[in-house]
Amino acid sequence: MSPQGRSISADGFSLLEAARDVGVSANAAYRHFEDKGSLLAAVATVGFEALSAEMQQAVAAPPRERSAGESQLKAVGRAYVAFAVARPHLFQLMFTDRGASCLDVEAAMQGPTPGVLLGQALDVLAAAGGVAAHRRADAAMSAWVVAHGVATLVLNGPPSMRDPTTRGQMLEGVLDLLLTGLRAPASKG
Question: Given 46, 75, 102, 107, which is the most exposed site by the fewest CB atoms within 10 A?
Fold first, then answer.
């Protein structure tokens, strides 16, 4: 939301309008940002840093599952979806091609990235035998796809997905399926 209370999409403003909305001169805005893309990249970086902070808090909370690895992986997934629900516009901006790529943004971040935190959770799971070491890269992609898919369905799917109970049940169900799949022996096909 802008200071005037209107929602602005990534396409729906100029750097000059953004400067005006926050009460600074156009010259001030251009001293900090080359163009609208660099402003959006900076906003995306702030979003990734906030997502990482929320993921770290979730992992630090008392475990809800018996296994530390399962608890960390589920905590990361829950935090990811909760972030998307709480900040839908920021979440969607973080995964657009406006400004900078996710890799560029993560390179500019201070502290662990969401990808690093996911990897740490998978390392704990692997150490406990919850995923074979040779499947770790596939596990990381699968876990991200699950969390991002649920978040996207909640934001863009049918209205029933916005219900917290429905969303929570779906997320827990797909995380359980993911964990079951990670524990399964690799196919020989």
Answer: 107
- For tokens 């996207």, name the residue: 152
- Buried residues in 158-176 as b, exposed as e (16+ CB within 10 A): eeeeeeeeebeebbeebbe
Q: Which residues contact 73 (CB under 8 A, 6 or more apart)?
A: 118, 121, 122, 124, 125, 143, 175, 178, 179
Q: Global pTM?
A: 0.82
pLDDT tens across the length of the chain (189 residues): 443 444 445 666 666 677 677 777 767 777 777 877 777 888 888 889 999 999 999 999 888 877 888 899 999 999 999 999 999 988 988 887 665 566 666 666 777 888 888 888 888 888 888 887 778 888 888 999 999 999 999 999 888 888 999 999 999 999 999 988 887 666 655
Neighbouring CB atoms inside 10 A of 49's CB total 19
Q: Domain map of the chain by residue range?
A: 24-183
CATH topology of domain 24-183: Tetracycline Repressor; domain 2 (1.10.357)
Element (H, E) at 95: none
